[in-house]
């Protein structure tokens, strides 16, 4: 009698002989199928490598600055994902290139404006100094020229100081305090700081603001903005004129209104009043065209909005809103 191991061995041999016999008869089917499969695989691999080389070439054109390169649409999974990501990258690079071009043009324009703004007072300083060097000047003449020299130097100082503040905003280094600000105290501080200028110009600043009106923000920077707005109103208000400040608070925002009874704003100037270095018609020679731009920047950085329009009864009206939530 055969043992179990012998039975298993004979079974394996029998199965192998049958399989060998079947393969020997089906070789004409198996061999062509294998060749066909390898051919299809080789063709697919060649096509895939070709498309990858095309993507490499397109990336090279992008690296050379050609952001108009359009990546082809691929149906395959990995290449489709790669194409989609590269397409997003090219769009972003193109946007950055456009923004850099605009920033460069803005910088060139800003430098030209700064040079022009500084040139006028510095020229005045040189002329006044040449007059002061004359020996036959009377004391009164020297005193008069010294006053003009002081005004010109104050103009330069104001321009440089404001430009430095704007440059801090552009560099992103300004950090605002986030604390309760009393609008009444804010108005008191602005009045104290501008009392002499208002008196010399013979313009009256009035306000009646409740003690509980407040907003969350930065006291010092908001004072800077409000002073610039009041100064603009003062420059466009004749002697004997008046500037009024009002404020109110509701659950959505705190509103501050500054209104004068001056000449108002030219219609064509209204859309550009908060642009840097913009000087509308009727602006006095002392204006540098950046005070309102700085004020608008300060307000916007504190989740606020600022608008200007001509009041119904004449004069300009500035409306500032500090929102308690996103507007």
UniProtKB/TrEMBL annotation:
Keyword Transmembrane attributed: yes
Keyword Translocase among record annotations: no
Residues spanning the membrane: 12-40
Histidine kinase domain boundaries: 113-326
Main location, first listed in the record: membrane
Gene3D superfamilies with a match to the protein in the record: 1.10.287.130, Histidine kinase-like ATPase, C-terminal domain
Entries under InterPro entries matching the protein: BphY/WalK/GraS-like, HATPase_C_sf, HATPase_dom, His_kinase_dom, HisK_dim/P_dom, HisK_dim/P_sf, Sig_transdc_His_kin-like_C
SMART domains: HATPase_c, HisKA
Keywords tagged on the record: Kinase, Membrane, Phosphoprotein, Transferase, Transmembrane, Transmembrane helix, Two-component regulatory system
Enzyme class: transferase
Enzyme Commission identifier(s): 2.7.13.3
Reaction catalysis annotation: ATP + protein L-histidine = ADP + protein N-phospho-L-histidine
An annotated Gene Ontology molecular function: kinase activity
Classification via PANTHER family: PHOSPHATE REGULON SENSOR PROTEIN PHOR
Protein name as it appears in the record: histidine kinase
Organism of origin: Lachnospira intestinalis
């Amino acid at each position: 009698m055969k043992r179990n191991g012998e039975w298993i061995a004979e079974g394996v041999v029998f199965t192998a002989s049958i399989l060998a016999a079947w393969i020997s008869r089906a070789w004409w089917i198996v061999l062509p199928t294998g060749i066909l499969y390898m051919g299809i695989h080789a063709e697919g691999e060649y096509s895939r490598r070709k498309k990858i080389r095309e993507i490499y070439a397109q990336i090279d054109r992008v690296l050379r600055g050609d952001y108009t390169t359009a990546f082809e649409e691929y149906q395959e999974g990995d290449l489709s994902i790669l194409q989609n990501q590269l397409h997003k990258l090219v769009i972003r690079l193109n946007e950055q290139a456009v923004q850099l071009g605009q920033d460069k043009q803005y910088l060139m324009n800003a430098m030209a404006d700064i040079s022009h703004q500084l040139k006028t007072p510095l020229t005045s300083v040189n002329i006044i100094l040449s007059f002061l060097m004359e020996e036959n000047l009377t004391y009164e003449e020297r005193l008069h020229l010294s006053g003009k020299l002081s005004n010109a130097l104050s103009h330069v100082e104001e321009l440089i100081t404001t430009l430095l503040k704007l440059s801090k905003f552009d560099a992103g280094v300004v950090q605002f305090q986030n604390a309760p600000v009393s609008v009444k105290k804010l108005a008191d501080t602005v009045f104290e700081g501008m009392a002499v200028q208002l008196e010399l110009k013979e313009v009256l600043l009035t306000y009646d603001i409740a003690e509980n009106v407040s907003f969350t923000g930065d006291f010092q920077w908001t004072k800077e903005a409000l002073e610039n707005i009041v100064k603009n109103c003062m420059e466009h208000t004749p002697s004997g004129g008046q500037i009024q400040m009002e404020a109110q608070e509701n659950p959505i925002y705190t509103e501050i209104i500054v209104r004068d009874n001056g000449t108002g704003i030219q219609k064509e100037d209204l859309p550009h009043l908060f642009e840097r270095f913009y000087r509308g018609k009727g602006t006095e020679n002392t204006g540098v065209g950046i005070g309102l731009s700085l004020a608008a920047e300060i307000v916007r950085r504190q989740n606020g909005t600022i608008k200007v329009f001509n009041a119904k009864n004449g004069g300009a009206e500035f409306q500032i809103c500090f929102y308690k939530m996103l507007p």
